[in-house]
Amino acid sequence: MRILYNFLIRVAYFHLWVAQLFSKKLKLFVQGRKNVFEILSKKIGPKDKTFWFHCASLGEFEQGVPIIEAIKKEFPEYRIVVTFFSPSGYEIKKDSPIADVIVYLPMDTQSNARRFIKMVHPSLVFFIKYEFWPNYLLELKKKNIPTLLISGIFRKNQIFFKPHGSFMRKALYSFGHFFVQDTTSEALLKQLGFSNVTISGDTRFDRVSHQIEQDNTLDFVAEFKQDATCIICGSTWPEDEMVLIDTMNSTSENVKYIIAPHKIDPQKISAFRKRLNKKSILFSEKEGKSLSEYSVFIIDTIGLLTKIYSYADIAYVGGAMGTTGLHNILEPATFGVPIVIGKNFFNFPEAERLQQLAGLYSVSSPEECSQILNKLIDDRSFRSKTGMICGHFINSNTGATKKIMDHVKGLDANGLI
Fold first, then answer.
1. For the chain, does the N or the C end have fewer beta carbons within 10 angstroms?
2. What pLDDT sits at residue 391?
3. In this structure, are 250 and 347 located in the same domain?
């Protein structure tokens, strides 16, 4: 089975190499991996002590941040190496000061795994959520390098739980401990015979819970909002904007909207603005303008959304109206803000739980969107209660970082790292 896997990996890479000629994202994926080993040779010396964190993309990176911050505080002598699989994570975070080295993970071939691990020579490895690359994992096991899965999620339809999944199940034995998010994941692993499992929860709760303690002041947002009720529509896609537009056009002038599209596409933003019957302005146009005169503020830049959520009275979080995947609902929830999302959010356990608690509402049409948003706008008591549920949800689910760090400290005390 390993021979077949290695053959398929090489076939997949060949197809990616061809496909890059027609896709900007795939070109980043392929070309970004060309200089990984050169970068490592320059930034990591043979005597450096390192911890390695691997994440698929941006969301997994955010889950890793609380652990990275705790590791840097507890083990300042170690260098932090972060790898990404996806360009959407790497391109945004490649210059982040949180790590000493940030690179793409080379494709999961046996030779790449051996070379990468030899050059990084990590004392401890963290795989985040659901990245399982068997050649890397088996090489880590061979080298007796402690490896942890953090914020793990398992589902019964994954290959590990299929009759033909023996090769991938073998890779799971490389993990010294599994820190998972829920009881379902724990039960599935125990069915395979794993007892080294802890339900720690999701480290993202720790990540967002600290945001409320930061300085989230944005003068331009305060100038725009004034005393109006403000609905923040974060990480939206065109499908989300289609269900929002009727409500935006029909609500009263004392309601303002901030739209932060997931992708900054000038043509799509222009088309969206043409459908508005309210006065709108772009972030890139704001200099010298009186922002209080506008009803819709479109953020055509990145990196501001988390702070912008602190000004929200209501949040609409994008991604679930289409099939691209729901974006981070925890960021607005930490500010005690009621949340509205689209219809396709299954396999997003935090959204499912928050809906059950009545802190989040899902809509499937412009009519449903208008109904819930107008209720949240008009009924302050309902809005306040819904927001309090969200804030309590965050506070009651923190603590994953401490559980993981207690385990790491135990490894250190026993001389295992």
1. N
2. 97
3. yes
Q: What DSSP character marks residue 97? A: T
The predicted structure's pLDDT at residue 254: 94
Domain that holds residue 290: 216-395
363 shares a domain with 229 = yes
Q: What tens digit of pLDDT does each residue of 65-81 get?
A: 999 999 999 999 999 99
Tell me: the pLDDT tens digits for 2-19? 778 877 788 787 787 788
Q: Which of 286, 284, 328, 276 is nearest to 306 (CA)?
A: 328
Domains of the chain: total: 2
Does residue 229 share a domain with residue 96? no
Give the residue ranges of DSSP H helices in 32-165: 36-43, 58-74, 87-93, 110-120, 134-142
Q: What is the pTM of this model?
A: 0.85
Cα→Cα distances 377→38, 81, 83, 252, 381, Å:
55, 46, 43, 10, 10
CA dist., res. 5 & res. 283, Å (int) = 48
Distances (CA, A) of 339 to 19, 145, 211: 38, 42, 17
Q: Is residue 17 part of a domain?
A: no
Q: Compute the average pLDDT of residues 204-217.
A: 93
* Amino acid identity at 300: D
* % the chain with pLDDT above 90: 87
For residue 81, tell me if it sits in a domain.
yes
Task: State the CATH number of the domain containing residue 368.
Answer: 3.40.50.2000
123 and 53 Cβ atoms separated by less than 8 Å: no
Q: What amino acid is encoded at 223 in this protein?
A: E
Q: Residues 178-198: what's their mean pLDDT?
A: 96
